[in-house]
Amino acid sequence: LDRLAHYKPDIITIEALSGEQCEFVRVNAVTHPDVFKDYCWDPAPAQKAIGLGLQEALVEIQATLKAWAQQTKTTPSPTERRRLVAVFLAANDRASALVQWLRLDANERKAADGIAESMLKFLNRETPKYNENYEVAAVLAARLGLERVYATDDHTADDITDKAGPKFGEALQDMWSKIDIPEKKESQALETKLDSPQDILNLYRYFNNPAKLRAFIAADFGGGIKHATPELYGRQYVAWWETRNMRMVANIRSAFANQPGAKVLSVVGSSHKPYFDAYLNLMHEVQLVDAAKLLK
């Protein structure tokens, strides 16, 4: 976090579905089965607590942040911040809600101004399951004085895998079981020893090393291209992965479209990174920064 803070990003994006896409896959569950269940929260309790639907919450978020940006001489009150926490929750944007929660003084973090009591366990991170969207992105955003993070994941491409056929999953398991590269054992050894800040940094450095990532990509998606089944499941897998990454990168580009020149930090699973680098590098006004230099 200290090293990432030195980069001073203006915008932080995360690997999470937006409230809008969650609503889309919920309504279109027939063509996108299981996506909502696997990747989204049910915002209904939060929406009921504050009396806002998804679209109303999104409109209020935009209006509130615009008004705050224009108030250069005053800071939002605890009541205003708690209200925005509740509105972000109603918009199914839990990571941004956490950013606002962390920007409150500890004694102001309470169920008030539309925040449901049931949400305190999440907001106070009373859970054994760590998540980089919350422990890295949201914490860093709050530390830097940012008001939110941006969810840029995309699972609409999952219809490719849904249409692949009943034996698609079995084929992938077979393909993955054949991956036998030194890098796999190296990463597993690093992941089993996370007892100190140095161990964490070593893991992040490892997964931002271009040579290591190339090896993983060659084994995983290169293996998919070569995997032999009559249905060519491996090539369908690669098609899904490329489509998903292109849509994610489009969401990232959209996140800073109205802030030309912004510094952007994207927190995402390591196997996405080479694709992000490749696709972002095709875009005008985008200059990639070597993450390894930040993590020295």
Structure, explained:
The chain is mainly α. The chain has 17 helices and three strands. It has helices at 2-7, 19-27, 35-39, 44-50, 54-70, 78-90, 94-103, 120-123, 132-143, 158-162, 168-177, 182-191, 197-207, 210-226, 233-255, 273-280, 291-294; strands at 11-14, 150-151, 264-267. A three-stranded parallel sheet has the order 2-1-3, with helices on both faces. Helix 15 crosses helix 16. It is globular, with a radius of gyration of 20 Å. The two termini are 12 Å apart. The model has no long low-confidence stretch (mean pLDDT 95).
Order of helices and strands: HEHHHHHHHHEHHHHHHEHH
- Return the average pLDDT rounded to an integer: 95
Classification by helices and strands: mainly alpha
In terms of DSSP E residues, the strand content is under 5%
Shape: globular
Give the low-pLDDT segments.
none
As a percent range, the share of helical residues equals 55-70%
Sheet with the most strands: spatial strand order: 2-1-3
Instruction: Specify Rg, calculated over alpha carbons.
Output: 20 Å
- End-to-end gap: 12 Å
Number of extended strands: 3
Number of helices: 17
The description of the largest β-sheet is: 3 strands, parallel
